[in-house]
Design brief:
With 338 residues, the protein is of the alpha/beta class. The chain contains nine helices and 15 strands. β1, α1 and β2 form a beta-alpha-beta unit. α1 crosses α9.
Length: 338
Amino acid sequence: MREQTDALVIGAGVVGLTTAVRLAEHGLAVRVRAERPPERTTSAVAGALVGGPLIADETEAAAKFSPVEVTVPWHRASLAEFSALAGKPGTGVRLAGGRLVNRRAEGSQEWAARLPGYRPCDSGESAGFPVAFWTSLPIVDMPAYLAYLAARCVAAGATMETGRVASLEDAAAEAPLVVNCAGVGARTLADDPSVFAVRGQHVVLENPGLEDFFFEQNPGPASTSFFPHGRRLVLGGTAERDTWGLEPDQGRAEEILRRCTAVEPRLAEARVLGVEVGLRASRPQTRLEAEQLGAARVIHNYGHGGIAVGLSWGCAREVLRLAVEGTAAETALAEPVS
């Protein structure tokens, strides 16, 4: 007979695992179920950088993902968590210096000066980009970080299982609280046609000795970035909307190598370790809201696009608030009126 489950979290990517950690460490009996283990999710192939425009700019950039008044606090809460984790053994998180660049010079860049460690690049550092500056932000070695989150889930009493959730109705029959962190799978699971895949491809090289990251902020199908994680260097990237295939594209891989080598010539001789592909779960706006499904409360937490890592802790905190708020409301309704 299965032990009591207070919450069933669907999905074992960075959003699902972070949510499960928050709920389990709050004292809930949590189960995490996903079709793929953490190391095979899209999160495992992310760069990943935490911070940037969304923690400094409270207007246009943040509004692309959800209303500004909620997105910016989510992002800043996540930055605080990752900054606290940076340097702790086994987390895969470290604070790194690096360059943020933009090929478009129009528009205000006042937000950039509010980033930690801000310094404009000189002409020899800009790699030809009209906007280029140094900053210091957390970068995350995602395979190591996901393993850390999974271990933290188990340490808090959560159980992890591989399996498919056929429907939210089935999930609601298993636990009084269901958290939908299914990523692109939410298109079917939540019957949400606004969810679409943005295919991302990275090339992984043997690191020739780089310590600093490089990240191009421009939206579009191609951008230039590299993130050093010890002996690995993750090069990006692509963003192909409504492209669902997971097979590596050799032509795209060669383009990524050319762009990154133009910025850092040392990459030309580095050994290629692999090519990784993932499907970012995108949506016009992130969906984070609760609904009642029979006797169960369902909280949706998906549609984070390419910034799932950077929103993960803030969104998990909001899920916990909604879960506790729902429990308190149910308790109040159950209490007799004197």
